[in-house]
Amino acid sequence: MDNLAEGKQEVMVNGKPRHVLGYLQDFLFHPKRAMTPVRALSGGERNRLLLARLFLKRAIF
Fold first, then answer.
1. Keywords in UniProt for this one (predicted)?
2. 20, 11 Cβ separation under 8 angstroms
């Protein structure tokens, strides 16, 4: 969770605030699993976390 939100409780998704755990649930993370350190995540979970982080960044066209 800290890896995604940099210590904050909310992230901005499409200009609207979303709670980090709710956002991670969109990527199939169980709330307990979302609190796990990245080093303990499986490869698939790490990939889903990376996708979640990438979708938060603004696109440059």
1. ATP-binding, Nucleotide-binding
2. yes
